[in-house]
Design a protein that fits this description.
By secondary structure, this protein is an alpha/beta fold. It has 13 helices and 8 strands. The structure holds zinc ion. GO terms for molecular function: hydrolase activity.
């Protein structure tokens, strides 16, 4: 990382005598965001998920996170708007995505949260690994590393999720990310094939497989030589739940529009989050943890949750 050392050196020289606090090129803390597409909270509870349990044990969890806002809830309950809210921190009237056509998208004014990190910390290293291609095509920006793993069907996504976990672990072992987004698609695909419900064995099994992927990523994270001093915050959530074999039009269905949010790490609060939480809180929590000063002109809809 000669490049970054050099940058840091220049920054520290340039900043001598300048107003303190606004010269650092990289944040002191770090964030790992894990997205599990289409994961129902009751199925997550029913599945055996030791890796995710370890995150909950070392953090805070909300089990009533709303994927639609109080202020604005007219988008469909599908992945396009869901991941847009999850990654930009604003509702669909701002990011403009109401369905999976991505028509009306406005990521120029309401970009991926990596953009806000880079604004404050230009040398922060950002990584995005996803296998639902539209996230990478449409939403991701300001990523130093972004990879897409095209997949089809539940089995295809299961295969690619495993590759994503392997690559994420490798990046955590050999690279130096400050913010990393890892996305797994197989749970949603399995729900569409067999049903979104805790009584569907293959759906639970898909969640358990994702948990084993999460385990690999966490093992690599916890093995980083400076793991303790890097103050990693791990955030886990989803874009929607499901009912039957779909999840569209779920505005009044809690099994679709009410989900979970895990906030874990040494800087996280411990125990259940009792206050209301929304999907747009996730990127705001990441930004606040990283020390990004929130500009009101960004018009973010979320608030930080689950931090100490
Ligand atoms: Zn989805």
């Amino acid at each position: 990382m000669r490049f970054f050392c050099h940058l840091t050196f220049i920054a520290s020289v340039v900043c001598l005598g300048a107003v303190s606090g606004f010269c650092e090129q990289t944040p002191e803390r770090r964030v790992l965001v894990i997205g599990i597409d289409g994961c129902r909270r009751d199925a997550l509870q029913a599945a055996k998920t030791p890796a995710l349990d370890s995150l909950v044990a070392d953090g805070a969890m909300s089990e009533s996170t709303q994927i639609l806002g109080k202020r604005y809830r007219f988008n469909n309950t599908v992945s396009g708007p869901g991941w847009s809210s999850f990654l930009t921190g604003v509702w669909a009237d701002k990011h403009g995505v109401h369905d999976n056509s991505f028509k009306g998208k406005n990521y120029v004014d309401f970009p991926h949260f990596f953009a806000r990190i880079k604004q404050r910390f230009p040398a922060a290293r950002t990584v995005s690994l996803v296998d639902w291609e539209p996230i990478d095509t449409h939403i991701v920006s300001h990523a130093d590393v972004h990879k897409v793993y095209p997949a089809e069907g539940a089995d295809g996504y299961t295969e690619q999720d495993a590759v994503i976990a392997r690559d994420a672990a490798e990046i955590l072992a050999s690279d130096d990310p400050h913010a990393m987004m890892v996305y797994f698609g197989a749970v949603d695909e399995t729900g569409h094939r067999d049903g979104f419900h805790p009584s569907v064995a293959s759906y639970l099994s898909a969640i358990e497989t994702v948990d084993s992927n999460v385990q690999k990523v966490l093992a690599a994270l916890r093995s980083r030589p400076n793991y303790k001093s890097e103050h990693w915050l791990v955030l886990v959530s989803t874009d929607h739940g499901g009912r039957g074999t779909s999840h569209g039009g779920g505005h009044d269905l809690p099994e679709i529009n009410t989900t979970f949010l895990i906030v874990s790490g040494s800087d996280a609060a411990k125990g259940p989050i009792e206050s209301p939480t929304e999907l747009v809180d996730l990127p705001m929590t990441a930004l606040v943890h990283l020390g990004v000063t929130i500009d009101p002109n960004w018009k973010l809809d979320g608030k930080p949750v689950g931090l100490r």
